[in-house]
Write a structure and sequence with these properties.
- The structure is a single chain.
- By secondary structure, the chain is of the alpha/beta class.
- Among the domains are: 3-47, no CATH class; 174-212 and 244-467, TIM Barrel.
- Helices cover 40% and strands 12% of the residues.
- It contains 18 helices and 13 strands.
- The chain has helices at residues 3-11, 30-38, 67-71, 104-114, 124-131, 137-141, 188-197, 217-231, 249-260, 278-293, 311-316, 322-333, 354-364, 393-402, 408-426, 431-448, 452-455, 459-467, and strands spanning 42-43, 46-47, 72-76, 81-83, 91-92, 166-170, 200-202, 205-207, 237-241, 267-272, 299-305, 339-346, 371-376.
- The strands form three sheets. The protein has a nine-stranded mixed beta sheet with strand order 5-4-3-6-9-10-11-12-13.
- Strand 1 (42-43) and strand 2 (46-47) form a beta hairpin.
- Helix 9 (249-260) packs parallel to helix 10.
- It is globular.
- The termini are far apart.
- 39% of the residues are buried.
Length: 468
């Protein structure tokens, strides 16, 4: 491998095209050239400011090994829970010791994966997609550029007590939306709605009003910043989630923290519904640009949540306004130094107009690179895309047909959607969950003065069918 190849692979993001020869550097998109030179210190003919971490494939090769289980931790400060991906079960950790990455549950999962077994709980999503012949999150992340294994694996391939590389924190549940697949744990609006209307129970559907935020939330936030002060320099990625970050003072506190605690190797990412005022979006972007200019942070990534397009999306992410979302997104498009991702959560309510969103993303990509990541909702069960059987075959086919394949990232996400489509079509009608879905939508309409029949008329004959 040439010095150029070693350098480029060490910094290459999954969204970047291959570039095996230095003379091809000038043919790369301008935003990649800028990042290579401004962030990673590349000068034609030499490589200065080499990054600390060199890209390597995940070294554990058993049949079930998952990179996320070793290098990723999610922390939920409102409930004092942790997990090692969005798919697996949340579980409590000792808030005083604050070793959220090496809990007994995670250590047991890593031990089972070393033996080629699936963990006993929480990994069924990937297992089922792989069984159906699709590409799961686990497979996608095994050799994803920009992800780095814990340092302990350099010397010990069976190490299970390890240091995380990727940390994402749900600081609070303050949020301005109440998405159909969400709930009070992640949305203060959901919590307020449930308390107003009380517990709902009908035909197996239960909407509870019993969520309680930890009384120690302030202490938990302090402990989180203490942990980052001590261990943050081992991190490569820090993700801020909510609730909605743009509606949380914690985001400003976090940026102030990095202003006083520089971490020049760290990629900072927020996950946002982009329904804040343009002035708030601009203010946050300016603060982060200042931190990057001072080399207190390495890069900034915005994952803008959107699942489909049209009235279906405004219903599914109520009370989202697509015109506000698009105005803010177009502002971010003009900030070429920000890496942009559209993150889509697939539910039975969003598949039919997912192709409309993909068409818009294809148009935005004519301005500059935009990544598109997808996942399907895991809970509640009536939000699984597979409960309706093969209803969405044509919609999935249309979406897959118009997805581009211009680089490895786009090829991978296309394979990923094909896997979801295969799993969805392989299941039959789940009458119990379809009935719950109808009760859920009817209750939402009562609470929110919406009308699912007008937005999703195609659902009516399906609901009639389960009554027969």
């Amino acid at each position: 491998m040439t010095p150029w190849q070693e350098f480029y692979l060490s910094i290459k993001d999954s969204s970047w095209p291959d570039c095996d020869h230095e003379q091809d550097f000038l043919s790369l998109p301008q935003w990649i050239q800028d990042e290579c030179q401004q962030v990673h210190g590349y000068v034609i003919g030499s490589y200065r400011n080499q990054p600390r971490y060199q890209h390597k494939t995940f070294p554990i090769k058993t049949a079930t090994a998952c990179q996320l289980k070793w290098n990723w931790s999610t922390v939920y400060l409102t409930t004092e829970n942790t997990a090692s991906c969005h798919r697996t079960n949340h579980h409590k950790f000792d808030i005083d010791v604050f070793d959220f990455h090496n809990t007994p549950s995670k250590l047991d999962d890593r031990s089972r994966m070393l033996q080629g077994f699936w963990p006993e709980k929480g990994c069924g999503y990937c297992r089922d997609i792989e069984t159906a012949g699709g590409q799961s999150d686990r497979i996608t992340n095994l050799d994803m550029p920009g992800m780095f294994a814990p340092p302990e694996l350099d010397d010990d391939l069976v190490a299970i007590q390890v240091t995380p590389r990727i940390l994402e924190v749900y600081f609070d549940n303050v949020c301005n939306l109440k998405c159909v697949y969400c709930g009070p744990h992640f949305s203060s609006l959901w919590d307020a709605e449930n308390k107003k209307h009380g517990k709902f129970e009908k035909n197996g559907l239960i909407i509870s009003n019993t969520f309680k935020k930890s009384p120690d939330i302030a202490k938990n936030k302090t402990k989180m910043f203490e942990w980052i002060s001590q261990h943050g320099h081992s991190l490569t990625n820090f993700n801020f989630l909510g609730g909605e970050p743009l509606f949380q003072k914690d985001l400003d506190d976090c940026l102030d923290f990095f202003d006083h605690n520089p971490m020049p190797e760290l990629e900072f990412q927020i996950f946002t519904n982009l329904n804040a005022t343009p002035a708030r979006v601009s203010a946050v972007v300016s603060k982060i640009k200042n931190l990057i200019d001072k080399q207190h942070l390495k890069t900034f990534v915005v994952t803008a949540s959107l699942d489909c397009w049209g009235p279906e999306q405004e219903y599914a992410r109520f009370p989202l306004k697509l015109d506000i979302w698009e105005k803010n997104f177009r502002y971010l498009l003009d900030q070429s130094w920000i890496r942009l991702i559209v993150g889509s959560t697939l539910t039975p309510l969003t598949i039919k107009t997912l192709p409309d969103l993909i068409e818009r993303i294809n148009q935005w990509r004519k301005i500059r690179h935009v990544s598109h990541y997808m996942n399907s909702a895991e809970s509640p069960l009536h939000m699984h895309v597979d409960i309706l059987g093969d209803v969405f075959v044509d919609d999935f086919n249309r979406a897959i047909q118009i997805m581009p394949e211009n680089d490895a990232e786009q090829i991978n996400i296309k394979k990923y959607l094909q896997g979801i489509a295969q799993e969805s079509a392989s299941k039959g009608f789940d009458t119990e969950e379809i009935i719950k879905l109808r009760e859920f939508l009817t209750e939402l309409d009562r609470r929110r003065a919406t009308n699912w029949q007008r937005v999703f008329p195609w659902l009516e004959p399906i609901f009639q069918q389960v009554d027969q």
